[in-house]
Description:
- By secondary structure, this protein is α/β, with parallel strands linked by helices.
- It contains 20 helices and eleven strands.
Amino acid sequence: MTVFFRHSKHLLASLALFSVLGMMLAMRPTPSAMERVIARGELVVLTRSSNTTYYEDQHGFTGMEYELAKGFADSLGVELRMLESNDLSYIRYAIRKGTADIAAAGLVATAERSESLRFSTNYQNIDTLLVRRLSSPRITNLSELDNQKVAVSAGSSHAELLIKAQLDNPELDFQEVENATPEQLLALVEDGQVDYTLINSNSYALQRALWPDLIADYTVATDMPLAWAFNPKDDKSLYLEAQRYLTQAKADGTTAKLEDRFYGHVEQFNLYAARSFMRHMDDRLPLYEGLFKEAEDNSGFDWRLLAALAYQESLWDPQAISPTGVKGLMMLTNDTARQMGISDRTDPSQSISAGAAYLRRTHARIPDRIPEPSRTWMALAAYNVGFGHLEDARVLTQRQGGDPDNWQDVKQRLPLLAKSAYADQLRYGNARGGQAVIYVRHIRRYYDLLVWAENSRRRDGTLVALN
């Protein structure tokens, strides 16, 4: 009896201690969403891999969503960690579960999605377009899609639009494809497995040249807001900080500069040029791809950038020659060939290695403080117009209050080198600077197409499966 009593005292004391500890833990405030990010030292962002959000190029990871998210993480003083998923249902689930802090995935902030997610202010507006083959009937109203094969990504804003359209037109039918990317849906249309799909206007603008036999000539919806998504169950601390960041980014021109960076080099579509590029990518590029990759190892430049440069110069024709006497895949002058130590400019191996080495030499002359990708775009401009004229444009940019280390500012001044009022005040005089701007824009366009072609059905021949 006495022994039992002693054990009971210890048990009661332990219970009392646990009760006090429990009360203390209950009184401790739950960390806010912002405090969790700061304590963790990283911002976890969930995104989709696409040319409008997040992808890898010669300088590493980039994309509109990535650059905005990186800027936000930097403003918080934390690292950025990106997670990827093309499953829109999973993205919503992961945000609500807390797997990621933010979804920055090119999401349209629809009324339906706002019931389960908290959206930030928009950072970009897009239109929703209907895509068809050039040989398919043109659509002027969704009601005309009766008895047509239509496919969209499951859980997308495009599916929501079609579900709403079904209320007025029950005969409208469509298929939702799980985890489908825009490229995969475009491939289904091109191959005739479906007749129509929907695509965001920013995505269509970037990759239309990859699909020259498709057209988007009917606008289903306009001014659709792209925004970041947050867990509505969280406190608003991180959300409000993101609101301040995005509002400031729009006010100080950051988002405008990013839009210009990712979309500003997309010129008016030319069907003939697009078909020629696709044909040459299939027929000519494989003949020299190994040489471009070898030049990448020697020069450090992405082989696709070197291939884009060569396409701009010669359309991948080793026998190409200009009226001024430059020739070969990289269209080298005699002087440049001598500097690079090659004897035959029409030999593909010699031409590619010399062109890559010359670009590397030019790139090395660009001041180290100039960040990428501006440094590479300037090197390409100098490859075309000459290093001295590029420096003149940078001097002029600084005189006019622009940033001489930013390509977006410098490219606005390069055309002025053709005007005596400006050229006469500069060291190297008159130059066709406007041509250099177009030159760089074309190379960037070809480079992007080569990068995105590798990420799409264009290079691997795969299609998503339809049920």
